[in-house]
Amino acid sequence: GALASLGQEAVTVQQGADGLVRMAGISAATAGIAAQTLPELCVAHPHLWIDYREVDAAQIASLCTSGAVDVVLCRSTTEVASAFEFVPLRGDRVGVYCIESHPLARKKNITLQDCAHEQWLLPPDGSAPHRVFMQWCAQAELIPRLVRLTTRSLPISMALLKVMRCLYVGLESHMNTLVRDHEGLPCAFHRNRLRPIPRGVDAAELER
Question: Which of 12, 16, 130, 192 could be 20's S-S partner, Cβ–Cβ 3.0 to 4.6 Å?
């Protein structure tokens, strides 16, 4: 708690830093924000010691209440202590992804019929992609065939995409770095929309 934080700050100052900034963020924020900004922050402020932890969204409220963090990177729907002010940094969207060799990756126009019989891999229940996708299926009156494995691990998810040739519903903040770097062989569909699109649901936006 507070004593541990004081002890950590004392050790940090002894090692030559002028101060300690304690940060925590969800995995989407790690990939989409922290990985791009923290290196530049270290270069711009070499006098500071930055402690960054990746945490589950459910841990953020207690970290804020206990005073264990100074900055948290989370979604606007996450409950935080009243002493914290939410500042929007970046938008995020749900996308549908597949491996590069999947037949649907080569199609220029994706229809509901193209995906109706595909097998889908979803993040855990309660996550934004899971919630939005199930809302989309309900409005489209589609009963999806789901991979019977739930994980937050991207390496495991990418392995499933390659072996089972399924479709993955994920966040752009997670996936776009992999797509750009060609690191786990995920490939987003071509830039077009799945028809028909249920009103108010963004899960059907398919991004390169």
Answer: 12
pTM of the model: 0.63
Percentage of the chain beyond pLDDT 90 is: 25
* Other CB atoms within 10 A of residue 56 CB: 9
> CA-CA distance, 192 to 176, in Å (whole number)?
16
- Over 90: is that where the pLDDT of 63 sits? yes
Residue 201 has pLDDT above 70, yes or no: no
CB 123 within 8 A of CB 130: yes
- The helix or strand, by DSSP H or E, that contains position 51, with its residue range, turns out to be strand 48-54
Q: How many CB atoms lie within 10 A of CB 151?
A: 14
DSSP single-letter state for residue 111: B
Three-state secondary structure of 79-100 = CCCCCCCCCCCCCCCEEEEEEC
| Contact by Cβ (8 Å): 120, 144 | yes
Q: What is the DSSP letter of 190?
A: P
